[in-house]
Amino acid sequence: MRCPDCNKFVPMATDNEPEANGDVSGTSYTCEIRLAHTCEECGTELRECNLEVSYDFADDLPTDVVFVGGTQQKMVVKPCSPDPDSESEEPMEHAFDLDGEEYSLTEKPVIGARGKALKGRFTHGVEGNVTVRCSNCDMTVEFYVEHDGEEASSFEECC
Questions:
Q1: DSSP character for 58?
Q2: 150, exposed or middle or buried, with CB in 10 Å at 0-12, 13-18, 19+?
Q3: How many whole angstroms separate alpha carbon 93 and alpha carbon 79?
Q4: Is 131 helix (H, G, I), strand (E, B) or coil?
Q5: What's the distance, Cα to Cα, between the start and end of the chain in Å?
């Protein structure tokens, strides 16, 4: 591809850090991740791709065992501890906020119809660890998310 700034045919740098913009609502995590390929000579962005990652971390919450009717067991999510300064004894609802997200690039070969990797064709995706924290009781939950990504040929041109 020809770079519009340095006016050369140059290879694209594919090792740029992904730009993540995550959000937490209840026990749902969604994130829009932008991948960019830049000119190796001058750093101008040549192509970009936006990936959408979502994850429901309700199953990752810590649980307690509750005995119902003698021997029956039931797993329930640990309640949010009341604030020690509060006079209320009622457990509060968890209010999760994004505490941190760390993403890294992945590159996987494209598999052809016969089950073999196609030479020179790769998908560019992301994988990462996300941490959310309850603002009421400081409970933290960590989970892993990934997106297989897109082939470089399907990235949109920036310029």
A1: G
A2: middle
A3: 7
A4: strand
A5: 11
Identify whether the C-beta of residue 145 lies closer than 8 Å to the C-beta of residue 30.
Answer: no
Q: Which of 13, 31, 12 is nearest to 103 (CA)?
A: 31
Express each pLDDT in 52-101 by its tens digit: 999 999 888 887 776 666 665 666 777 777 555 666 666 678 888 999 99
Tokens 């850090």, residue? Answer: 17
Which residues neighbour 60 within 8 Å (Cβ) at sequence distance 6 or greater? 141, 142, 143
pTM over 0.70: yes
Counting beta carbons within 10 angstroms of the beta carbon of residue 16, is it exposed (0 to 12), middle (13 to 18) or buried (19 or more)?
A: middle
Half-sphere exposure at residue 25, Cβ-oriented, CA atoms within 13 angstroms: 4
Helix then strand then coil, in percent of the chain rounded to 5, is: 5, 60, 35
Hey, what are 104's tokens? Answer: 């890294």
